[in-house]
Fold:
Amino acid sequence: MQNFGHKGQHYYADNVPVRRIAESCGTPFYCYSQLAIESAYDAYANAFAQHDTLICYSVKANSAQAVLRILAARGAGADVVSEGEIRRALLAGMPASKIVYSGVAKTASEIEFALSKDILQFNVESEPELHQISAIAARLGKTARIAFRINPDIDVGTHEKISTGKLENKFGIPWQFARQAYAEAAELPGLEVCGIDMHIGSQIMSLGPYSQAFERIAELVQQLRGDGHTITTIDLGGGLGINYDADNEVAPAATEYAELALKTFGEFGCRLILEPGRSIVGDAGILVSRVIYVKKGGISTFLIIDAAMNDFMRPSMYNARHRIVAERNNGSEQVHYDIVGPVCETADTFARKRQLAAQHADDLIFIEGAGAYGSVMASGYNTRPLVPEVLVEDNEFRIIRERPDYDSIIGLDIP
Ligand code: LLP
Structure:
């Protein structure tokens, strides 16, 4: 991660010492680099520059308005999964004509809202959903452009909780039923069948599963065209991984991914749609925390920091291993710490037996690779305020989401 790291004694986000931000807004907080977001987006845009491609950033990965605006300014569209995300994308300046609506089960009111905004495409995940979209569009006198999300039954070798392309997963239309689904759609009112869609999982670290899934989709497109359907968009989903643990992992580059996609689909005369999330924002963010206490346990030494599982769920939910860096990194004494938060659960553990220079209360700790699925998955468990977010642009920073005060949190309750 080039945008975050030590320069001398201090840890920087681009050209801002993170300590300066911590002094101004308190800890914990998420800190994002605008430059890192831009360069990750540009890597995709450049890799696909030769082909008609729409990059629909997957809003669920990080839905801060400021982040969406950076991407909107570069021409990105949005992949959304709820009315809330459609609203966020539109508000940030992403036009409806660049919004694709994914999601396992869109409700009637969400479908109506999306139709009223005339979004680019619905990625349909089931037969009942197809009928619902058709009925609502017909009633409103609108046309819904649709693609079916196909489940190609591919094992992507990622964590079981984020694998979506096997038949046992709830996602998409099983590939064996695809032709039947398209035939059914062709008979229904209010629909314009325009494409095909897939998304096989997240944090995918090799191109092999993509290659298999692309082949299956390519074959289907040919069959569907043979059946008389018009396929003009192919949505490849998201899923490319990032190097959380630089020593042991190497994610495929956007250029290699593009090469494979264009080799398979380059001659289909279709517009490609991509839905990357993590690979755009994951490496562009860190969670900044402070040591509260160093505690000697019976077996381990605990570094208890002021961020917790409610602020950043990935380690407790997926056993995710993130790089954790301490600002104080030059002491001669090295300690193996269990790095934990203050929440009352053993799951509130960020890492075990991590070697760091000896730490003291108030030292700053940085959890790297936290730009995706960090802030968006946070909760207020233990009545801890949602963590604020800060955006760094070269040598300046600004708060892009405030820490809520206790009155506004508790004030939502109706006694
Ligand atoms: N498109 C669809 C339909 C998706 O469901 C997802 C992610 C994406 C695109 C973006 O995938 P990405 O490029 O970010 O891998 N909370 C989990 C990840 C859940 C991913 C859900 N779907 C985590 O922290 O690992």
